[in-house]
Amino acid sequence: MKSTIEIVPAVLEQTENELKKQFDRLAHLAPRMQMDYIDNDFARGDTVDWHILLDLPEIYHHLLLELHILARDPLPIALAGAQAGFATVIVPVEEMKETDIDMMKRIAESAELMLCINLETDIHALHPYRDVAHGVTVMTIIPGRQGNPFQPAGLAKVDALRALGYRGILEIDGSVNETTIEAIITHDVNRLVVGSALTRVSQPDEVYKKLLGKISEVSLL
């Protein structure tokens, strides 16, 4: 029997007002939620300033909050997020250097540290940080905004990492919905980040239940 896969509702908004609206709509669904901070220098899709996000762990203290940072200099933001009470901080491996390991260790003392890997990046880029990070967020879209199309090539990274014996957390992020989830959950993953499939519908509770149902079907196999 497979271990249960966790759904992580995700919010990506450009204004503080919209961010709070989406949080209030989705915060009751799951014990864990994610929000994105995107720097326009890194990817298209500027979001709410990260300083504003630092207030969220205190407001939503009953949740395990993930902060996904897509920025050219992500570690200072990750450290601030960890110190503010985020349960998980996610940084792009493409922006890491081996000289960053000491700071990464400092972050990992306060929060779960995850490395995000893009579609075009070889998994060997993760190797220098294997003993620092708690897990890997595998992108299955080109990052920048919610709703970008699903890229199944990202799932090959999951299989390759598991084949190499990697036992850390593997999280899928990108276009997870009722159509794509069946293919995704046949792979050995722990978490599914779900954004637009929940934020862009009038009945997110119903969608969430359907996604859980599909996971339950596979877990029983």
TrEMBL record:
<dbReference type="InterPro" id="IPR011060">
    <property type="entry name" value="RibuloseP-bd_barrel"/>
</dbReference>
<dbReference type="GO" id="GO:0016857">
    <property type="term" value="F:racemase and epimerase activity, acting on carbohydrates and derivatives"/>
</dbReference>
<dbReference type="InterPro" id="IPR013785">
    <property type="entry name" value="Aldolase_TIM"/>
</dbReference>
<dbReference type="GO" id="GO:0046872">
    <property type="term" value="F:metal ion binding"/>
</dbReference>
<dbReference type="GO" id="GO:0005975">
    <property type="term" value="P:carbohydrate metabolic process"/>
</dbReference>
<protein>
    <recommendedName>
        <fullName>Ribulose-phosphate 3-epimerase</fullName>
    </recommendedName>
</protein>
<dbReference type="Pfam" id="PF00834">
    <property type="entry name" value="Ribul_P_3_epim"/>
</dbReference>
<dbReference type="InterPro" id="IPR000056">
    <property type="entry name" value="Ribul_P_3_epim-like"/>
</dbReference>
<keyword id="KW-0479">Metal-binding</keyword>
<keyword id="KW-0413">Isomerase</keyword>
